[in-house]
Structure formats: structure tokens, C-alpha cells
Write a structure and sequence with these properties.
Layout (H helix, E strand, L loop, with lengths): L3 H5 L4 E9 L2 E6 L2 E8 H10 L4 E6 L11 H10 L4 E4 L5 H9 L4 E4 L1 H5 L2 H10 L4 E9 L10 E5 L4 E6 H11 L3 E6 L11 H10 L4 E4 L5 H9 L5 E3 L1 H5 L9 H12 L7
Parallel strand pairs: 1-4, 1-12, 4-5, 5-6, 6-7, 7-10, 10-11, 11-12
Antiparallel strand pairs: 1-2, 2-3, 7-8, 8-9
Helix pairs in contact: 2-3, 7-8, 9-11
């Protein structure tokens, strides 16, 4: 329910999300025009030292190139940070999951492949535990229809392919299949720095009994606070705030957390 984190005192989480191409972090706007940020291990070390709670690593070309995720870069990042690391991209089987977990990941993110083969969620949950499986969703505002009653449709393949699936229906289905967490990526808000799509984040948080990660659009600590207090998110991806070339000013993790705690009274992990 919205406000759950505040009411229960559960620590809210800030997450850095890395879109990786050839071992380097990139940053896009609405899933297009990726700009190079820097070496993945170096960027990871920087945000880890500043107090980030978790890192999500997406090998964004792995699926399109029909290859496994970049295990060498995963190892370098895992050796650099000591917070939970989630990996997505190029994961098509239990063997792929075993490989990325052996490389240092703690969680698996399933997106386009889960839409094509939903049983991979169940297989991963049975093999590694529900807490290991993150259902990642790319969602976009569309006209409300009988097929898309929420007004949000699920897209796959880097937001290029519409599925005809309603986001709420898919979130509930993912929970039934065994997902332990849901990451809601707003295509409309991605890279805009104008705030998360609170409406779909709230709808999904109310529809499932799982932690929900808000993603796409963070431009200030105020935006993160809204994701927690107004939309019921358990975690918020704040990548653009930390290292986006499009931001006039990047903001340290510690500064974001200090504002969340002092101004909004949110429980955060302070080192």
C-alpha cells in the first residue's frame, strides 16, 4: 500500500541502474540515444563509496545479439562493490542464471524473456528462491481499452516492441509465477528528470504483495520521496541524479539520503 515504508519503518532503498555496453555505463533518454558515462567498475566504485544501497546491471545488447551477459564486467563490478547486485540481459535459461550468479550477482532481472517464456520466472524462483528473481517491466501510457484497462501497456526489446499486455495483469501474473520483486520502468519518463510515473507505480504497488522499484525520471530527492510516500515504492532508481551527462548538476547519494531523512522523515541507511 502507498506509504507502507513510512508506516512500518522499513528502510527505503536507493538503487543505481547501469545500462552496460562493452563494459561501460551509458545513459539514455526514453530508451534511445545512449551517451557514454564511464567504465562500469569505476562508476560502481564511486556510487558504492557514496552509500548506494543496491546496483542493477543491464547488459542492454546481450539479448539482441543472442549472447550471454557480459560476465567479465559483472565480475569486475562485483569485486568493486559490496551491496546487492542485480543482473539482467541475455538471460535465457537456468544455465545463464547460474553463470551470472557465479560471476557475483545476487539477483536476476527478467524482462523480455519472461514475457516470451513466463515459466522462466517459476524455474528461477524454484532453483534460487523467490528473493532472487526480479520481474522488470517496461511500461508505456496508452489509451484505455478492454485489453489494456490500466492505460499502461508492457513493451519488450528495449521498449521497441508492444506486447498487447496490460501492466497490472502482467505484474500479478509475475507474482503468481514466483517473482520476488517488481521493477517498473516508465518509458515515458525515462531520462527526463521530471519525476517517476507515480500512477503506474502506485497501481502496481497496490496490485501485488511484493516490493516495487520505481524507475525512470528521477531528477531530485523530491521525486524519490514521492515514489516512496505517494506511490508505495520500496526502492527508487536514481541513476540520472548520480551520473547523467544530461544533468546540469549531479547529486551525491549521501546528499539525496540526507534530504530524504531530514526533509521527508524517511528511513534510510546512513553510513
Amino acid at each position: 500500500m502507498p506509504g507502507l515504508n513510512v508506516a512500518t519503518g522499513l528502510t527505503t532503498r536507493l538503487i543505481a541502474c547501469f545500462d552496460i555496453i562493452d563494459g561501460r555505463v551509458t545513459k539514455a533518454r526514453r530508451f534511445e540515444d545512449n551517451i557514454d558515462v564511464g567504465d562500469a567498475a569505476e562508476v560502481a566504485a564511486s556510487v558504492y563509496a557514496d552509500g548506494i544501497d543496491e546496483i542493477i546491471f543491464y547488459d542492454i545488447l546481450a539479448s539482441a545479439q543472442r549472447r550471454q551477459a557480459d560476465l567479465a564486467t559483472i565480475r569486475k563490478v562485483a569485486e568493486t562493490v559490496f551491496v546487492p547486485l542485480t543482473v539482467g540481459g541475455g538471460i535465457r535459461s537456468l544455465e545463464d542464471m547460474h553463470a551470472v550468479l557465479a560471476a557475483g550477482a545476487e539477483k536476476i532481472s527478467l524482462d523480455s524473456m519472461a514475457v516470451r517464456n513466463p515459466t522462466i520466472i517459476t524455474e528461477g524462483s524454484a532453483e534460487f528462491g523467490r528473493q532472487c528473481i526480479v520481474q522488470s517491466m517496461q511500461v508505456k501510457r496508452v489509451p484505455v481499452t478492454a485489453e489494456i484497462p490500466s492505460g499502461y501497456e508492457v513493451f519488450i526489446d528495449g521498449a521497441r516492441q508492444a506486447t498487447g499486455m496490460d501492466a497490472i495483469v502482467w505484474a500479478r501474473r509475475g507474482e503468481e509465477l514466483g517473482a520476488g520483486e517488481i521493477c517498473v520502468n516508465s518509458i515515458d519518463q525515462d531520462g527526463t528528470h521530471e519525476g517517476y510515473d507515480l500512477e503506474i507505480t502506485r497501481q502496481i504497488a497496490e496490485a501485488v504483495n511484493l516490493p516495487v522499484i520505481a524507475s525512470g525520471g528521477a531528477g531530485s530527492a523530491e521525486h524519490a520521496a514521492a515514489a516512496f510516500t505517494e506511490a508505495g515504492a520500496s526502492a527508487a532508481i536514481v541513476s540520472s541524479l548520480l551520473y547523467s551527462p544530461r544533468m546540469e548538476r549531479t547529486v551525491p547519494v549521501a546528499e539525496i539520503k540526507a534530504e530524504l531523512a531530514k526533509r521527508y522523515g524517511l528511513p534510510v541507511r546512513l553510513d
